[in-house]
Amino acid sequence: MKPILSARRLEKRFGAVVAADALSIDIAAGQKVSLIGANGAGKTTFVNMVTGYLKPDSGSIALDGMNIGRRSPRHVAELGISRSFQIPQLFIDLTAAENLAVAVSGTHPRALSFHSPAEAHGRRDKALELLERFGLADLADRPISELAGGVRKLVDIAMALVRRPRLLLLDEPTSGVSAEEKFATMDRVIHAVAPDAATIVFVEHDMEIVSRYADRVVAFYQGRILADGDPRDVLNDPEVRRYVTGGAQ
């Protein structure tokens, strides 16, 4: 089966630091892939290169066979790749619905405008639909500044779904979420993404989340892929236990 995303021999250096070292990976449509590794292992660098926020020094990145390695983040998003961020990128003084309405406006080719009541109504309808998917409709008119960290994470992910992406990349979707809420948060994410059948790639440090939600795990170490495969096999790999999880299960 032809992969939806194919990266070949990606290289990225920041001075003496090697963030990607001949990195190659294929991701098939419909997979839920977790990227694991210690801080600085290259996970977020990979996500940033795929989404256009960083340009690889060499190598190629293809979406459905189209080379996207030199595209801007906006163009990558238009082609069908969206992302969330480890620290939610939200307008803190706007409400949850208003943040999503801004994201909806950004999908239109013409300049942003809030002057047309009909267009504003359509944007709000779309915003409320997405918030409903995440079980957040009752918080639609609450300012982001009043919302808990876990809820902000969900709003940020909802914004990434505005374009109905084919590939969704999530940077630590449960970081900052309490231990009691982490499974409920991830359940909401999986439920919300399901109608669009998007392929999900998520960076995660919590091995309980990885084991429960990923059907494939890719372990990074010093800009290389240390192991790639079934979650149980990867998490039990001796090198992964030594360099990534420290024996955690």
Question: What would you say this structure looks like, in words?
Answer:
This protein has 249 residues and is of the alpha/beta class. It has a domain at 5-80 and 165-245: Rossmann fold (3-Layer(aba) Sandwich). The chain has 9 helices and 10 strands. The protein has helices spanning 43-50, 73-79, 96-105, 117-133, 149-160, 182-193, 207-213, 231-235, 238-245; strands spanning 5-14, 17-27, 32-36, 58-63, 66-67, 81-83, 167-171, 199-203, 216-221, 224-229. The strands form 2 sheets. Strands 6-7-8-3-9-10 form a 6-stranded mixed sheet, sandwiched between helices. A 4-stranded antiparallel sheet has the order 2-1-4-5, covered by helices on one side. β7 (167-171), α6 and β8 form a beta-alpha-beta unit. α3 (96-105) crosses α4 and α3 (96-105) runs parallel beside α5. The chain starts with a strand and ends with a helix. The relative contact order is 0.18.
In short:
The chain is α/β, with parallel strands linked by helices.
Distance between the termini: 31 Å
Q: In which order are the strands of the major sheet placed?
A: 6-7-8-3-9-10
**Helix content bin:** 25-40%
CATH superfamily of the domain at 5-80 and 165-245: P-loop containing nucleotide triphosphate hydrolases
The helix/strand class is: alpha/beta
Number of helices: 9
Molecular shape: globular
Helix and strand run:
EEEHEEHEHHHEHEHEEHH
**How much β-strand is present in the residues?**
15-25%
Radius of gyration: 18 Å
What CATH architecture of the domain at 5-80 and 165-245 would you give? 3-Layer(aba) Sandwich
What's the total number of strands?
Answer: 10
CATH topology of the domain at 5-80 and 165-245: Rossmann fold
Taking pLDDT < 50 over at least 5 consecutive residues as the criterion, the unreliable ranges are none
Instruction: Profile the largest sheet.
Output: 6 strands, mixed
Mean pLDDT: 90
CATH class categorisation of the domain at 5-80 and 165-245: Alpha Beta
